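Cross-check.
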Amino acid sequence: MQKDWFVIHTYSGYENKVKANLERRVASMAMEDKIFRIMVPMEEEYEVKDGKKKLVKKKVFPGYVLVEMIMTDDSWYVVRNTPGVTGFVGSGPRPIPLQEHEIHMILGRDLSGVPDLPKINLSVGQEVLVTEGPFEGFSGRIEEVISDRGKVRLTVSMFGRDTPLELDFTQVAEMA
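Predicted model, tokenized:
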């Protein structure tokens, strides 16, 4: 049997509690060989409070928890009957696992730990065209390629001034 990622629905605001409850149940019921990883996808963002900029973690999918497991009657029972779990996401009598491209998109990376970033042929000093976003149609010169984050820093000329931008690889194209 193969392990897959499944999405479970929880009461909103209880995601971390469900994660902790499920981890305890997995240990107490000796299910470590069937239920592997339990994740509450988070992202960091800046929040301004009382005039101070602070980095905070926010849930990407409030009300949902990801579980990597081998689907058997026992593992299904353990997850389904964990306090705070309202059920698995999916239609039909049995939960449907996430497809590999979906889990890559949700986690923003390959689960093997190798970044799942687009391959590009961009280099410092190269002229590119911005193809998406508020600067679409502008051209600029690449100042830095940040491969591990899938970003480029470039300078575009707007209103007679050079303006620095940081964009995703997917937002620029090589000039012909």
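The helical segments are 15-28, 73-80, 100-107. The CA atoms of residues 45 and 91 lie 33 Å apart. Passed to J.P. for a second look.
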